[in-house]
Design a protein that fits this description.
With 169 residues, this protein is an alpha+beta fold. The protein is 27% helix and 36% strand. Strand 4, helix 3 and strand 5 form a beta-alpha-beta unit.
Length: 169
């Protein structure tokens, strides 16, 4: 077993039965106000409608020692003529940050996009002050192709930029 626990981690499709374990960290991350532009105060039902994707998109969970500790949603970035480029969003329970959950979800997402025949992955809005995420994406080959200045209101930093990041597959 590895020191970071990845040998005990399973990534699988999310089900409705997983939502009660996803929602607490979803709500905490949104409330923190540093990484997602979702509205504050979403009900469980509203949050589920935003997070739990339907085909051809997909939502997965990372399960560590029987507990859902992270989730990712992935699929086409745009419909129709833009559907060959994928996108994704990630949330990791703050209690397990640093355990490799985000990296495992990221690698899974990249592999899934390749297997589905996407030509690239584009993230439309990576908060520039979310340096851990920016470092992770860059370590996996994503490039910052532009930054929209002052496009996100960070609870701690005020107005900050949103990076558009891209990975050719």
């Amino acid at each position: 077993m590895s020191a970071n626990g990845r040998d005990r981690m399973l990534i699988r499709d999310a089900t409705a039965a997983d939502w009660p374990q996803i929602f607490p960290f979803f709500a905490a991350i949104v409330e923190d106000g540093e990484t997602y532009a979702y509205p504050d105060g979403l009900s469980s039902e509203q949050a589920s409608a935003l997070w739990m994707e339907q085909a051809p998109a997909r939502t997965v969970v990372a399960v560590l020692d029987g507990r859902v500790v992270g989730s990712a949603k992935m699929g086409p970035n745009r419909p129709g003529r833009g559907s060959h480029v994928g996108t994704a969003s990630f949330m990791v329970d703050p209690s397990v940050r640093g355990a490799g959950v985000g990296t495992a979800l990221a690698r899974h997402m990249i592999d899934w996009h390749r297997a589905q025949g996407f030509s690239a992955i584009q993230f439309n809005a990576v908060v520039e002050t979310n340096t851990g995420a920016v470092r992770l994406w860059q370590s996996l080959g994503f490039e910052i192709i532009g930054t929209v200045p002052a496009a996100f209101v960070s609870r701690r930093h005020g107005l900050v930029g949103l990076h558009v990041m891209h990975l050719a597959l």
